[in-house]
Amino acid sequence: MSAVLEIQGLEKTYRSRRRGVRKALDGFDMVVEAGQVHGFLGPNGSGKTTTLRTVLGLIKPHGGRMTILGREVPASLPEVAGQVGAIVESPQFFPHFSARDTLSLLADAGGVDRIRVGEVLELVGLRDRAKDRVKTYSLGMKQRLAVASALLKNPRLLILDEPANGLDPGGIREMRSLMADLAASGMTVVLSSHILGEIQLICDSVTIISRGRRVAHGSVADVLASNSSSTIRVRLEAVSDLPAAAQLITGVGAHVSVENDHLLVSGLDRPAFVTRVLAERGYWVSELAPMAADLEDVFLQLTGTAPVEGAHRQVDQSVAVGAPAAGRWGQ
């Protein structure tokens, strides 16, 4: 597969009297292969939106290299812009225009045949509300209209920033199906979202950014596998036996956490050894299961944005790349 979007060593620095010098992007890398749905993930303030705005020529970088469809940008952006559709942050529309009028205006401005307006309204589920004024739309409907506007040119690269914002569960599922259909048709989709369960379901690959640098990338399966722990869940026939069982397992060198109705055990090369240790003392295991990490677990681990009791994390307090696991908060 060839790279539709490639970013190498991207840098962007902001300077202000109040905050001083802040590196929004610090040598950031990302590669998106053709025909993929690629998840672009990061906590608030991590540099995610800055990256997208820089790729689209809305912000000037201070260093690095970017290509879209093999062409250097921003220098060649006018040549590839017609093959890129995007919504970044919250798009605004004329409230007194209908959806059809809005898209027709955009189609005329972009040299797109108006036949395409009806096609994209059908795709995003707004066909029956196409003549209604945008001011009567819910947040989710406005988001659908934004996606429709990005699809007008039938782009080869589609960049969507939080496309599921405001959608109900049914709308989210429809959006998931639409993204899959677009990828199947040959379109490449870059999808930025905080709904990590959806990203895990729909995306072929992901890039995770924290403090302006890439902290993970690759296929969803590979990212999950490389960041999963060796923790196993152990249930016993009698919940009352958990404290005693925890002491036994700790005694053979494992780390054990006692939960309400099970144990979490890590640090053993052979998890099945737990059953032998417990059976020898008359404790019977009813479940021994590996704890599979999901994308949310991996994201929180890599970016250091998991909640901490009694702490109030600020927007920019995510993990510095290479920082140790302990003491990340507030750094």
Automatic annotation (TrEMBL):
<dbReference type="InterPro" id="IPR017871">
    <property type="entry name" value="ABC_transporter-like_CS"/>
</dbReference>
<dbReference type="Pfam" id="PF00005">
    <property type="entry name" value="ABC_tran"/>
</dbReference>
<keyword id="KW-0067">ATP-binding</keyword>
<dbReference type="InterPro" id="IPR027417">
    <property type="entry name" value="P-loop_NTPase"/>
</dbReference>
<dbReference type="InterPro" id="IPR003439">
    <property type="entry name" value="ABC_transporter-like_ATP-bd"/>
</dbReference>
<keyword id="KW-0813">Transport</keyword>
<dbReference type="InterPro" id="IPR003593">
    <property type="entry name" value="AAA+_ATPase"/>
</dbReference>
<dbReference type="GO" id="GO:0005524">
    <property type="term" value="F:ATP binding"/>
</dbReference>
<protein>
    <submittedName>
        <fullName>ABC transporter ATP-binding protein</fullName>
    </submittedName>
</protein>
<dbReference type="GO" id="GO:0016887">
    <property type="term" value="F:ATP hydrolysis activity"/>
</dbReference>
<feature type="domain" description="ABC transporter">
    <location>
        <begin position="5"/>
        <end position="236"/>
    </location>
</feature>
<comment type="similarity">
    <text>Belongs to the ABC transporter superfamily.</text>
</comment>
<keyword id="KW-0547">Nucleotide-binding</keyword>
